[in-house]
Amino acid sequence: MTLICPECKNSVDLSALPQPLVKDQVVECNHCGISLLILDVVDSGVTAEVADEGK
Ligand SMILES: [Zn+2]
Protein backbone atom coordinates (compact mmCIF):
# COMPACT_ATOMS: atom_id res chain seq x y z
CA MET A 1 0.00 0.00 0.00
CA THR A 2 1.45 3.32 -1.03
CA LEU A 3 0.64 6.98 -0.72
CA ILE A 4 2.18 9.59 -2.96
CA CYS A 5 2.41 12.95 -1.26
CA PRO A 6 0.46 15.50 -3.35
CA GLU A 7 2.86 18.21 -2.21
CA CYS A 8 6.34 16.77 -2.81
CA LYS A 9 5.43 13.73 -4.97
CA ASN A 10 7.47 11.40 -2.80
CA SER A 11 6.20 8.07 -1.52
CA VAL A 12 5.10 8.42 2.10
CA ASP A 13 6.28 5.65 4.43
CA LEU A 14 2.99 4.20 5.66
CA SER A 15 4.65 1.35 7.54
CA ALA A 16 5.67 3.78 10.27
CA LEU A 17 2.07 4.82 10.84
CA PRO A 18 -0.54 3.20 13.09
CA GLN A 19 -2.49 0.52 11.18
CA PRO A 20 -5.01 0.22 9.75
CA LEU A 21 -5.17 3.55 8.03
CA VAL A 22 -8.69 4.92 7.79
CA LYS A 23 -10.53 7.61 5.89
CA ASP A 24 -10.36 11.11 7.42
CA GLN A 25 -7.17 10.25 9.28
CA VAL A 26 -4.44 12.89 9.16
CA VAL A 27 -0.93 11.67 8.48
CA GLU A 28 2.32 13.55 8.11
CA CYS A 29 4.53 13.26 5.05
CA ASN A 30 7.92 12.00 6.19
CA HIS A 31 9.59 13.91 3.35
CA CYS A 32 8.18 17.45 3.47
CA GLY A 33 6.37 17.28 6.82
CA ILE A 34 3.02 18.45 5.48
CA SER A 35 -0.23 17.16 6.99
CA LEU A 36 -2.25 14.94 4.66
CA LEU A 37 -5.90 14.03 5.06
CA ILE A 38 -6.68 10.51 3.88
CA LEU A 39 -9.59 10.50 1.43
CA ASP A 40 -9.78 6.85 0.52
CA VAL A 41 -8.08 3.57 1.33
CA VAL A 42 -8.11 0.77 -1.22
CA ASP A 43 -6.05 -2.38 -1.74
CA SER A 44 -3.77 -0.70 -4.23
CA GLY A 45 -3.06 2.45 -2.31
CA VAL A 46 -4.14 5.46 -0.35
CA THR A 47 -5.51 8.71 -1.71
CA ALA A 48 -4.89 11.86 0.28
CA GLU A 49 -5.07 15.62 0.00
CA VAL A 50 -3.21 18.36 1.78
CA ALA A 51 -5.00 18.98 5.05
CA ASP A 52 -6.32 22.51 5.42
CA GLU A 53 -5.31 23.41 8.93
CA GLY A 54 -6.92 26.81 8.61
CA LYS A 55 -10.41 25.42 9.12
ZN1 LIG B 1 5.53 15.45 1.07
Descriptive account of the structure:
The chain has about 55 residues and is mostly beta strands. The model has no long low-confidence stretch (mean pLDDT about 90). The protein has one domain (about 5-50): Rubrerythrin, domain 2, CATH 2.20.28. It contains no helices and five strands. It has a three-stranded antiparallel sheet with strand order 3-4-5, with no helix packed on it. A two-stranded antiparallel sheet has the order 1-2. The chain is globular and about 30 Å long. The structure holds zinc ion (ZN). Zinc ion (ZN) binds near residues 7, 8 and 29.
What is shown here, in short?
By secondary structure, the protein is mainly β. The protein has one domain: Rubrerythrin, domain 2 (Single Sheet).
Spell out the blueprint of helices and strands.
Blueprint: E1 3-4, E2 11-12, E3 26-28, E4 35-42, E5 45-50
Bound molecules: zinc ion.
Zinc ion binds next to loops.
Keywords:
38% strand, 55 residues, two-stranded antiparallel ribbon, Rubrerythrin, domain 2, binds zinc ion, mainly beta, three-stranded antiparallel beta sheet, 0% helix
Count of individual beta strands: 5
Q: Name the ligand types.
A: zinc ion
- Termini separation comes to 29 Å
Biggest beta sheet attributes: 3 strands, antiparallel
Secondary-structure element series = EEEEE
Shape annotation = globular
Poorly predicted segments: none
The CATH class assignment is: Mainly Beta
Average pLDDT? 90
Tally of distinct domains: 1
Q: How much is the radius of gyration in Å?
A: 10 Å
CATH topology title: Rubrerythrin, domain 2
Strand order of the largest sheet: 3-4-5
Say what oligomer this is. Answer: single chain
Measured as a percent range, the helix fraction is: under 10%
Helix segment tally: 0
Strand content: 35-45%
| CATH second-level architecture | Single Sheet
The chain-level structural class is mainly beta
